[in-house]
Design brief:
By secondary structure, this protein is mostly beta strands. The protein is built from four helices and 18 strands. The strands form four sheets. It has a five-stranded antiparallel beta sheet with strand order 3-2-1-4-5, with no helix packed on it. A five-stranded antiparallel beta sheet has the order 8-7-6-9-10, with no helix packed on it. Helix 2 crosses helix 4.
């Protein structure tokens, strides 16, 4: 169909119990009857998105997809084909769009997986077939917001849109640009992967420097977490125990050895979550 992927105004020509049929430029297209509260009469003009479905049948939907020609939006990956690319759901009931392997990373482990998200628009090849086209840097820049310094230390959810040797480029759910240096991740995220990160800096150009590593106090041991919980529930967030306290008193209060207690305090001190003074340990972040 030469107008595959275009928005057209077709004219209703017929209907049955499940479908409405409309014609445009000599081509009759089927529309799912559930799109209408009342079946439109013959001769009614309908504006919709024309496409060939998976079986190659001409279809029209009045529920326009969020993705179109020069209209970028996120689509969800629903299938991965190593010989072809990845299939992306753009909101059509019986058609997913392929992003060609030519646009995907050379390393297969960095390909998007099912459930990942890709920002794409639609393009048509010489055979009038629809393909998904990944948004380039200029498109991402055009939709991005300028981050403020106050965002430092905030948690963000972001989608990976570009992989480079220097690091991972992401776009947050609030449309801020982010960059993850290789030192700030344990494993390189996939293209399209949704990651949860924390802001460790804000550049002058409004880009966020992000880390996928946990905060120090989030990576503490179970013993340290227990001590932290005691401090959080203690009056004034203090307790009369330090690394100088009597081992028997520590065993009585916490059920752990003094060595384990000192290691727990060491974790919290390193994380700058506590301080010790005058025979007490005090919580700094609560």
């Amino acid at each position: 169909m030469k107008f595959n992927g275009q928005i057209v105004e077709a004219t209703v020509t017929d209907s049955n119990e499940t479908q409405v049929f409309a014609q445009y430029d000599g081509v009759t297209m089927a529309i799912d009857g559930t799109e209408f509260d009342t079946t439109p009469a013959v001769g009614t003009p309908l504006t919709g998105f024309a496409y060939d479905n998976t079986q190659g049948n001409a279809r029209l939907t009045t529920k326009l997809p969020t993705i179109g020609h020069d209209h970028y939006a996120f689509g969800t990956v629903v299938e991965v084909r190593r010989d072809l690319g990845v299939f992306v759901n753009i909101g059509l009931p019986d058609k997913d769009i392929v992003v060609s392997l030519d646009q995907l990373p050379e390393l297969g482990r960095l390909w998007p997986a099912r459930g990942d998200r890709l920002m794409v628009d639609l393009m048509i090849d010489k055979k009038h077939r629809l393909w998904g086209n990944l948004a380039d840097e200029s498109i991402i820049q055009a939709v991005a917001n300028h981050a403020k310094p106050a965002m430092k230390n905030q948690d963000v959810t972001a989608t990976v849109y570009r992989l480079k040797m220097a690091g991972t480029h992401v776009l947050t759910d609030d449309f801020y640009l982010g960059f993850i240096h290789p030192n700030e991740r344990e494993v390189e995220p996939r293209l399209g992967e949704v990651v949860h990160a924390r802001v460790i800096g804000v550049r002058d150009d409004g880009t966020l420097n992000l880390s996928l590593k946990p905060r120090a106090y989030e990576a503490i041991s179970d013993d340290a977490a227990m001590v932290l919980a005691v401090l959080e529930h203690s009056p004034n967030h203090q307790m009369p125990y330090t690394d100088k306290s009597d081992p028997a008193a520590i065993q009585q209060a916490f059920g752990i050895s003094k060595g384990a207690f000192k290691r727990a305090l060491g974790h919290l001190l390193k994380a700058k979550a506590i301080r010790q003074h005058d025979g007490v340990t005090e919580l700094l972040e609560h």
